[in-house]
Specification:
Length: 359
């Protein structure tokens, strides 16, 4: 068998339980990763076919209820359609690896070839982890004209300063306790998922600015947001809600550390909101996790995400498709392997989400 075919077959037929050469990696850019291990796996929602995924959002009831008296003459009845159709287009992400046949020719048998393939596969996968981590935490598509990058978190959950208002005012300012933001994002004027927030004011996330990570400032505003965004369904109906996926708070490490210090020093005065134990900070028993990818961002955001309405939409027909190693164009001794995935982020219920921004 020719060397290229032999290497390709080894890559497919390798026994995952075989003894492998160990190595230590200094390749990671971030201390922690959230996108691949948590979102792409645990929070993935599978779809099949089409050029994206659709969702229905009912914005109001029919206003058909009223109080009546005997023999009351009814006026005419009418119906208004308040169901909006959201749409999230697929995005395609890929990673690749390359092996030169000359490297493999001097390898001492199949085991040594597999050790090289292991390292290159690891490096290729880590490159994808980093790409998606950056795309999610404010570094994905930044304008509506970007047709390649997936929608970042702040496409779905954003601040008044990022909206068409351009600055904080009213209840969203540091002097307020927050409110639902009824404006479109400044970079996506059509609205998240193609639904205009200005025309559909219930289709809004909660937002408030803060100055300090203290009980009287940020914690008070988080408590208000927790109450205002804790939506329930009084009438059972088919829903996108996914049980078992609760809330989580995300921010830079600095905000987590400040919250931990406050919780440790004033625990008896914070009520049931904040707690700190064994290095884990919680708000109303929901974890508050530091995000290393946010460390270089100018803004100090604190996100309160309800994952029962949020997730990763993946096309099951093209999810983590790994291509067989093959000859690279114009490089006859180089074998390349590519992995593709078709996906995007999706948020079904924006009014269950909150973001706080330091000013």
């Amino acid at each position: 068998m020719a060397l290229p075919e032999a290497i390709a077959d080894l890559a497919i037929m390798a026994d995952p339980n075989r003894g492998r050469d160990k190595f230590v990696s200094y390749a990671e850019k971030y201390v922690n990763y959230h996108m691949m291990p948590n979102l792409m796996r645990e929070k993935k929602i599978s779809f099949k076919g089409g050029n994206g995924c659709n969702f229905n959002a009912v914005m109001d009831h029919n206003n058909g209820a009223k109080h009546v008296e005997p023999y009351e003459v009814e006026s005419g009845i009418s119906r208004t359609d308040t169901t909006k159709r959201g749409f999230v287009p697929w995005r395609i992400s890929k990673t690749q690896m390359a092996i030169d046949e000359t490297e493999m020719a001097i390898a001492d048998g199949p085991e040594e070839i597999l050790d090289v393939l292991d390292v290159e596969t690891f490096r290729s996968e880590l490159a994808l982890w980093e790409l998606l981590e950056d795309a999610w935490w404010l570094r994905g598509a930044t304008t509506s004209s970007n047709s390649k990058a997936p929608f970042p978190l702040n496409y779905w959950v954003y601040t008044q300063a990022d909206s068409s208002d351009g600055a904080y005012s009213g209840d969203h300012a540091t002097t307020g306790e927050g409110a639902f933001l009824t404006k479109n994002h400044n970079s996506w004027s059509g609205g998240p998922g193609g639904i205009d927030v200005t025309a559909n004011t219930k289709y809004a996330n909660w937002n408030c600015a803060y100055t300090n990570v203290t009980k009287d400032d940020l914690f008070t505003k988080m408590r208000r947001a927790y109450f205002e965004t804790d939506w329930g369904d009084p009438i059972p109906h088919p829903s996108y809600h996914r049980s078992g996926h609760g809330r989580c708070i995300y921010s830079k490490y600095q905000q987590v550390a400040e919250a931990e210090r406050v919780a440790e020093n004033q625990n008896e005065n914070l009520g049931n909101d904040m707690a700190s134990k064994d290095g884990l900070v919680t708000f109303r028993r929901h974890p508050w996790k530091p995000v290393h990818a946010l460390k270089d961002q100018a803004q100090d955001y604190v996100y309160m995400i309800d994952w029962s309405w949020f997730g990763i939409a993946g096309n099951k027909n093209y999810w983590m498709v790994r291509k067989k190693l093959r000859e690279a164009p114009n490089q006859p001794t180089v074998l390349r392997g590519d992995t593709y995935t078709m996906w995007n982020t999706i948020c079904y219920n924006r009014r269950a989400q909150s973001v706080f921004s330091k000013t």
